[in-house]
Amino acid sequence: MVQQINILPAHAIDLEKWDACVANSGNGFIYSRSFYLNLLTDNWSGLVINDYEAIMPLPWRKKWGIRYLYTPPFVQQLGIIGATKTPETQLYQAIHSFSNYGSYLFNYQNIAFTHRLEGALCNNYVIDLNKDYNAIKASYKKSFGKNVNRASHQHLTYQSFENIEEAIQLFYQYNQDKVRHVAIDSFNALKAICKQLSFNNLVLRKVVNSTDELQSIVLLLKDNKRYYNLINYTTEAGRKNEANYFLYDHLLQELSSQNMIFDFEGSDLPGVKSFYESTGAINQPYFKWHFNKLPWPIHLLKR
Fold first, then answer.
1. 131 and 144 share a domain?
2. Termini Cα distance of the chain
């Protein structure tokens, strides 16, 4: 059945309907909320099916007059959100009418749609929080439980923290070599996102030692479905004290027994992947798509 598909610039989108679609859809992630896209993308447009029955955010840039899709920092999964029976061919045609080159991240519920695309599955680990802490703890791998026990003898304390700017700055300072591809403007945009959210939609926690020295810190964003593990930082001293294990054990205890998902946001990095798996989290993969439909010979320059 042919559906009505429009691709609208951000300023022409009915933001109330757009955000309602995100909030009411099981695969509507915080990354697709209009305020998030407004702050973190250079430009974005929205693919809208019928009267916002389904949507698809399209972050884009231009180079040499060519519009291309790209993945903004601090954005993990976008894709098609909402209920749609739109034929795959019609969706592909609509996307390519907008851009013939780029990279894009489809959410975990779009995997069936992406079967004919060339791309790769990416790891994403999640924990269902709709059970009590003892049930969550029972899923810990032996290594995680052992490190939590070791940390419990290090005189550590789990605390709330309210300094968003300090948390983001510490993360940036510690990970500078790993985040060279992320412009400082993106970190400033992240600060703006956190400030726009109320503290009811943020979780900022830290672990300190007996002399109140910072050991580990975590910043989560929250919507009506998920907690997003956006930033995590552990000091060298904290590593020796297994502070990060202590932090996440207490965090999961605090957040347990809610009809929510704890989203670790990845990862394909072996060490991080192993840590997330050790909590008993399950892999809920999403799909990374790179496409090049540019005409010859331009497509040769953009590989």
1. yes
2. 35
Question: Do residue 164 and residue 258 come from a single domain?
Answer: yes
Indicate if 116 and 209 belong to the same structural domain: no
Helix and strand tally (H, E) in the chain?
11, 15
Q: pLDDT tens, 202-246? A: 999 999 999 999 999 999 999 999 999 999 999 999 999 999 999
From the number of C-beta atoms within 10 Å of its C-beta (0-12, 13-18, 19+), residue 107 rates as buried
Answer yes or no: are the C-beta atoms of 226 and 263 closer than 8 Å.
yes
pLDDT tens for each residue of 64-122: 889 999 999 999 999 999 988 888 889 999 999 999 999 999 999 998 888 878 788 99
Domain total of the chain: 2
Task: For residue 123, give the H/E element and its range.
Answer: none
CATH of the domain at 293: 3.40.630.30
